[in-house]
Design a protein that fits this description.
The complex is a heterodimer. By secondary structure, chain A is α/β, with parallel strands linked by helices. Chain A is built from 23 helices and ten strands. In chain A, strand 4 and strand 5 form a beta hairpin. In chain B, a hairpin with a 2-residue loop joins strand 4 and strand 5. The chains are: A alpha/beta, B alpha/beta. The interface between A and B is large, with 171 and 189 residues.
Chain lengths: 618, 621
């Protein structure tokens, strides 16, 4: 389940990520590239204008005392690029650069959001396909952090990164080219400096990835802790556990504090060393310029222009290093995203076989099963289970807590695969069936109803927009939620609040039953759905269940002996083995059967329940 | 909160706009570790202020090169000065990262601690404004926003110092030019003010859209088994996509506005540079403006711009912080944002302090009297009206009724888990002002309908900091009928129960919660429908054990149930119907007097008798 220790992602991973998520947006990406290139070209012009300005102004200062007004009136002056003209040219170019780079940033953000939304979608899809073994050990808060938090950290990588780093690199190249043309000496000095800088950057880049990964994990744990406490706020408060929870909170807070600080410091190493290098570079460049101006090889204007280009270099280098920091975060996020993607479901998927409709046959052949994370010494949960349930028959499953009843039904959904043996539905082994088709033909009703903060329609149809309202209303009416529905302010569009706030447990249970009716499966598993309901609602639910069972194969997990009464067959599980299986009537008539003895015990001992009796029989 | 005027849900909704002044709230935070804060401010003043020296030394270099102005030293000397300023700045930055990360991580942790601490321990009823996952987006993003605001407030001194000195130097060189440069910069500030309300609105929309995304993810993964079992992965993903698209739109509006802000600042600087060029053209001709002066102006300008951008960002952040404080006080419910900024010691560096349980000793419960209790659902509809009853010491009272009759609301309103808006609660002779603060151990303990466990060991979940030792733990586990489960779990009491207790079965979670309640050693035990995950037999054994234990220690029980096992034990049964008490009395009395109860009891009898025959149960009618 857990992949090997993640190493920092390689450069090819960044490339692969960019290709996968940016390629579909090539139009926007092209627009972005155009915007960037034009704005870079314009930016390169600015120091040239300044040089001409300074050299022209200096020439003016040396003698020709003409007023600006006289110059403006002189068409020859305009043509030769006078000072005012240069000033205006500067303004025009600078403003155009602004508009273009603002546009680039916006387009970059749009591209980034689209790309990361795709990634969120892919990750959510992947995680939803993982088996229960994965989900059991993770809090919802942690999943939020890993699917949304990590990907949001990546959004900078997708948008800002492309704009600032690629744009910055192009600007860098442009500046160096101009400098080479101007003066080989200066060009050489600055190029050497840039090369050294990039070499150093490449080395320090990985310095913070691991620390940043730990930082994100600390974040996930911190918010996981908070989310759980908030979900259980009533349990904590009414049992006076607040102070204690706050004391426990110090642990994730400590981890958060130290891991965050370490990550920040590690990341600062990268940009501090870049800054140090830049100081070195400016020393070299300014020194060269001072020397060249002193010997008269270049003008002061050119010296100033070189200085201006040097300042311009600072921006892309600062941006690149700053984005390197983002890249490191992104690197850590990609590491974690990859780790998620690398987590494979233990259920090998094949292009599976379809299943027929109508009541389905269920067959277990020599099925053994133990949870992967369990103690290898421990006895398996299911230990050689063999039985066949004919289509349309109802099986009552009896057994003490921990005898393997729930696990047995989970295998039918293929939440897990058996370690040995074959589970088959309608003659198709679960491992050979198409997973979607398999789950589509098995329905389950448990005590635990999961609702979403969404409309009644979405909750009922489980977000299936293709079901028509008439069908939904019909089913609501069928399960006896007609009155409840009539009282809803916005009908099917009524919003169900957090945690099913505006629904009672019984209504929620009936809603869950309605879901199964809509699904219309050929095999139904009931895990004592009625036990939390009051007798009136319970009786009503039982009637609905009766209808649900009609024309379907069913397995009923019984917590009470009376639940089994409606079954055609009874099966008793003990320590993962079938110890009795047969027609209910036949077993009831055979006084030596466990079932008959359970019934007898139930009659003889008032107030004694199924579990106790099962224990005594065992 | 008082019993006579509790906040109604609508009043809670109206509290959305009481965030207060973000600046004043943030100054409250400065009381936490003032020395570290002072160090931060000093270090960042050096970092942001030192560029003023860089500008002056650059001017020196170009004046020396062009032979203009009063060259005070050679270009090489100025170059050496530039180098030393840069080196000092690198040192300050390295120190700055260390001290700022220490300060920031501590402050955001403190705010989160304050929030969680208030939600979990403060008096009054708590109702989260939305789901727990949505609350997480407030814990995460809104607190981070406040942290970012503080970062700006630490930086503002260095930026300010730079701006003041730079402008003074420029003014000495050319007052008119400096004044004209200031005009566009001032215009930027005015225009920024006009954009403010939009920033606030757009930011809020984006936050809400983000909240819906995280919320939906949380719900999906809480319900992952149901989603997979129903084979609805793709449909759920489609909904997720829709929410993501909405958020993308909101985020882009947000970033567009931010970009508008930024361009505004940058453009004004270019206009200002244009002004220098236009005016400098003449001044250079007259020789009053040197190449070095030009270098100085042009070096300072981008820094001045970033100062203006910074001020703009500070204003944006000021606004965002206002939104953040609003949302945080909304999360807190009845408290203002000052709770968030309270100064507490997180003891981050010392050894982990031991947990001290500081609960008071309870006055033994002689009689609990409830009069005319009334409560509403979160949507404002009446859930409970005119409920009056009494509990005697050592009594066993069962609240029953059909689904939606208000039986759960009755005990939840009593315990202050939902606010009540009318009525009185008397504990012996004390009028209970704040039930939520009153009904806690050792006075009372509670098991909810769907109890939550936390990612920790089973032992930790049951003891939850209770001072009782191993003997008390063993007794609580026995009472909760959990002994055998612990033998079966391969880690025993030290088994990690997983997120929300998912590694346990529903019944095990419920019984662990019951053990947690028994562990509190409380006078009054409140069970909100244990039957939801317990089979009849286990529930019966639980009542048997509890019954037997009352010989050693008298407890009063208030039980929501519809099961015979509980009803048969009841000294008194309260029958709820339509949010009111329909009948109360002994089981025989209520069955005889109340049609509702007769119907409920009859059904139970019929159904259970069908199986158990006529031997199993007392026939009461």
């Amino acid at each position: 389940m857990t992949p090997d220790r993640t190493s920092p992602p390689s450069t090819t991973r960044y490339g692969a990520m960019l290709r996968r998520y940016l390629a579909p947006q090539w139009r926007a990406a092209t627009a972005l590239a155009l915007l960037l290139l034009t704005s870079i070209g314009l930016q390169l012009l600015v120091p040239q204008i300044l040089r001409r300005f300074i050299d022209t102004a200096s020439a003016g200062a040396r003698g020709d005392a003409v007023t600006a007004a006289a110059l403006v009136a002189d068409p020859v002056w305009w043509a030769t690029g006078g000072l005012i003209g240069l000033a205006l040219a500067f303004l025009a170019v600078a403003l155009a650069t602004q508009v273009l780079s603002a546009g680039a940033t916006y387009v970059g953000a749009a591209v980034g959001w689209t790309a990361t939304n795709f990634l969120r979608q892919d990750l959510a899809r992947h995680c939803l396909a993982l088996d229960l073994g994965f989900h059991k050990s993770r809090t919802a808060g942690e999943m939020i952090e890993r699917i949304d938090g990590d990907v949001t950290a990546l959004s900078d990588f997708f948008s800002q990164f492309s704009v600032r780093v690629i744009g910055g690199l192009l600007l860098l190249l442009g500046i160096l080219t101009v400098l080479w043309i101007e003066n080989v000496f200066i060009g050489l000095a600055l190029t050497l400096f840039t090369v050294v800088e990039i070499a150093v950057l490449a080395r320090t880049r990985e310095v913070a990835v691991h620390a940043t990964q730990l930082e994100r994990e600390a974040n996930a744990k911190l918010f996981g802790f908070i989310e759980e406490r908030l979900a259980g706020i009533e349990d904590v408060r009414a049992n006076g556990g607040g102070a204690h929870a706050m004391h426990r909170f110090l642990r994730p807070v400590r981890t958060f504090f130290f891991d965050t600080r370490r990550a920040w410091v590690r990341r600062s190493i990268v940009w501090l060393s870049t800054y140090g290098l830049f100081v070195l570079g400016s020393l070299v460049t300014l020194g060269t310029s001072i020397h060249l101006v002193t010997i008269g090889a270049i003008t002061v204007g050119t010296g100033y222009m070189v200085f201006q280009y040097l300042l311009m270099l600072q921006a892309p280098i600062e941006q690149i290093t700053q984005q390197m920091q983002q890249l490191q975060r992104a690197g850590a996020s990609i590491g974690r995203v990859d780790e998620l993607f690398a987590t494979r479901s233990t259920l090998a998927t094949v292009a599976g076989r379809a299943l027929p409709s109508g009541p389905l046959e269920v067959r277990f052949e020599g099925v053994r099963f133990g949870y992967a994370d369990a103690d290898p010494e421990a006895a398996p949960i299911l230990d050689g289970v063999d039985f066949r349930l004919a289509p349309g028959r109802v099986l009552g499953l009896l057994g003490r807590t921990g005898s393997g009843k729930t696990t047995l039904t989970r295998l039918l959904f293929r939440f897990y695969d058996p370690s040995e043996g074959v589970v088959s539905i309608a003659g198709v082994a679960t491992v050979d069936a198409e997973l979607g088709a398999l789950r589509a033909c098995v329905g389950m009703v448990t005590q635990d109803v999961q609702l979403f903060q969404a409309s009644v329609r979405q909750n009922l149809s489980f977000f299936d927009g293709t079901l028509d309202d008439a069908r939904l209303l019909e089913v609501l009416e069928d399960v006896g939620l007609g009155d409840w529905f009539a009282a809803l302010p916005d009908g099917l569009d009524t919003h169900i609040r957090a945690g099913g706030g505006n629904l009672s447990a019984g209504e929620a249970q009936l809603l869950a039953l309605a879901r199964v009716f809509l699904k219309d499966p050929g095999l139904v598993i009931l895990d004592e759905p009625s036990s939390r309901l009051d007798p009136v609602t319970e009786r009503h639910l039982e009637r609905c269940v009766e209808r649900l069972l009609h024309g379907r194969t069913a397995i009923i997990i019984a917590h009470r002996l009376e639940t089994v009464e409606r079954a055609d067959e009874v099966m008793v599980l003990e320590r993962g083995r079938v110890v009795e299986h047969g027609g209910r009537a036949r077993l009831a008539a055979d006084p030596s059967s466990r079932y008959a003895r359970l019934r007898a015990a139930g009659r003889g001992l008032a107030g004694r329940g199924l579990d106790t009796n099962l224990k005594e029989l065992a | 909160m008082t019993t006579s005027s509790p906040p109604t849900p609508s009043a809670q909704g109206a509290s959305a706009h009481r965030g207060g002044n973000p600046l004043a709230l943030v100054f409250e935070l400065a009381r936490h570790r003032p020395a570290l804060l002072a160090l931060n401010v000093s270090v960042w003043i050096v970092v942001h202020g030192s560029p003023v020296l860089l500008g002056l030394f650059m001017k020196g270099i170009f004046d020396a090169l062009s032979g203009q102005g009063a060259a005070t030293a050679s270009a090489w000397t100025f170059l050496a000065l530039v180098l030393s300023v840069d080196m000092a700045r690198i040192g300050a930055l390295a120190l700055g990262v260390w001290v700022w990360s220490s300060y920031w991580a501590e402050l955001v942790s403190m705010m989160r601690r304050n929030l969680l601490g208030y939600l979990l321990t403060a008096p009054g009823s708590r109702r989260l404004p939305d789901s727990p996952s949505e609350a997480i987006s407030r814990f995460r993003d809104d607190v981070n926003d406040i942290g970012e605001y503080i970062e700006h407030l630490v930086d503002v001194w260095g930026f300010g110092l730079f701006a003041v000195i730079a402008l003074a130097v420029m003014f000495r060189v050319d007052p008119l030019m400096t004044a004209l440069i200031c005009l566009p910069l001032g215009f930027t500030l005015v225009f920024s003010n006009l954009l403010r309300p939009h920033i606030r609105r757009v930011r809020r929309e984006m936050r809400e859209a983000t909240g819906r995304v995280t919320d939906f993810l949380g719900e999906t993964f809480n319900a992952v088994q149901a989603v997979q079992g129903a084979g609805r992965e793709e449909a759920v993903l489609a909904e997720f996509e829709r929410l993501n698209v909405t958020r993308r739109r909101a985020a882009l509006r947000d970033s567009l506005l931010a970009e508008l802000f930024k361009s505004l600042n940058d453009n004004m600087v270019h206009v200002a540079t244009g002004v220098i060029l236009l005016l400098g053209a003449g001044a250079m001709g007259r020789g009053t403006f040197t190449v070095g002066d030009f270098a100085l102006f042009v070096t300072f300008l981008p820094r001045l711009t970033s100062t203006i951008s910074f001020m703009g960002a500070l204003m944006v952040q000021h606004k965002r912080t206002g939104v953040a404080f609003d949302r945080l006080s909304d999360l807190l419910g009845d408290a203002g944002p000052e709770v968030v900024v309270a100064d507490v010691d997180l003891s981050l560096r010392a050894a982990m302090p031991p947990f001290v349980d500081a609960r008071p000793r309870a006055e033994p419960l002689e009689r609990l009297r409830v009069q005319a209790l009334r409560a509403r659902h979160a949507d404002g509809s009446l859930a409970l009206d005119d409920a009056s009853f009494e509990l005697e010491r050592g009594s066993f009272t069962v609240v029953t009724g059909r689904v939606g009759s208000g039986k759960s609301t009755l005990v939840r309103a009593l315990m202050g888990l939902v606010p009540h808006e009318g009525g009185e609660i008397w504990w012996n002779d004390v009028l209970v002002d704040d039930p939520a603060a009153w009904f806690v151990p050792p006075r009372s303990a509670y098991t909810s309908q769907v109890p939550r466990l936390f990612s920790d060991t089973l032992r930790e979940n049951v003891t939850m900091g209770s001072p009782g030792g191993d003997a008390a733990l063993a007794a609580a586990i026995r009472l909760a009928v959990l002994e055998r489960d612990i033998d079966v779990l391969h880690g025993g009491l030290d088994t990690e129960v997983g997120s929300r207790g998912v590694r346990l079965s529903g019944g095990q979670v419920q019984r662990s919660a019951a053990a947690r309640m028994f562990m509190r050693d409380a006078e009054l035990l409140v069970f909100d429908d244990l039957s939801s995950a317990l089979d009849v037999d286990t529930e019966r054994r639980l009542w048997d054990g509890l019954w037997a234990s009352r010989r050693e220690r008298i407890v009063t029980c208030l039980v929501v149930s519809h099961r015979r096992a509980a009803l048969e034990r009841a000294d008194r049964v309260i029958v709820m119907a339509g949010g009111r008490i329909a009948a109360a009395g002994t089981l025989e009395e209520v069955v005889a007097e109340s049609v509702e109860m007769a119907e409920l009891w009859g059904d139970t009898g019929a159904e259970e008798a069908e199986v158990g025959g006529d031997v199993g149960y007392r026939v009461l009618r």
